[in-house]
Amino acid sequence: MSTTHKITSIAFSFFLILLSTTLQIILTIKTPTAYQVLQSYNFPIGLLPQGTTGYDLDQETGNFNAYFKGPCSFSLEDSYELKYSSKISGTIQKDKLMNLSGISVKVVLVWLNIVEVKRDGDNLQFSVGITSADFPIDNFYECPHCGCGLDCNEFENRDKNRGDSLVSSS
Q: Which of 52, 123, 137, 149 could, after both became Cys, cross-link 34 (CB 3.0–4.6 A)?
């Protein structure tokens, strides 16, 4: 084998090793979750219920979409009912979510769209356009579950007890 072939062979082997290493690094870099993205903009993860199936975000404009398997609804503190569509969208920037669509809250007997969320220190301000309400941020450190909100232990225990009684009656 000539010297030129040996150098070419060594260079090609080096290239393959470098390519393989680069691909391994790329494959091990994980895309942040929708919840991690929220945190990077100074929001708590509990603004989204558990179960996002994906999201897309335009880093330049802040436009985003978040996806769920289907619509999601739950109650919080036995006084607020919330609904999330299977796709929610809006624009995100530090301490501000705006132009929101796909999230609504029941106020008295009427469903209103939440159009904006602002962080002001330790409070979150939710706007439905005509009015807004402030809530302590620590209410949003935990993600609610579709169907049962934050009271899932009580919900799961009730279902478990129902299941146990059905099993014991056979």
A: 52
The amino acid sitting at 120 is D
pTM of the model: 0.72
Task: Assign residue 107 a region (left: φ > 0; alpha: ψ between -120 and 50; beta: otherwise).
Answer: beta
> What does the pLDDT look like over 106-137, one tens digit per residue?
988 899 999 999 999 999 999 998 899 999 99
Contacts of 24 (CB under 8 A, 6+ apart): none
Q: Which helix (H) or strand (E) holds 9?
A: helix 3-28
Q: What distance lies between CA 44 and its chain's CA centroid?
A: 10
Q: How many CB atoms lie within 10 A of CB 35?
A: 19
112: Cβ contacts below 8 Å, ≥ 6 apart: 104, 105, 106, 128, 129, 130
As to burial, measured by CB atoms within 10 angstroms (0-12 exposed, 13-18 middle, 19+ buried), residue 124 is buried
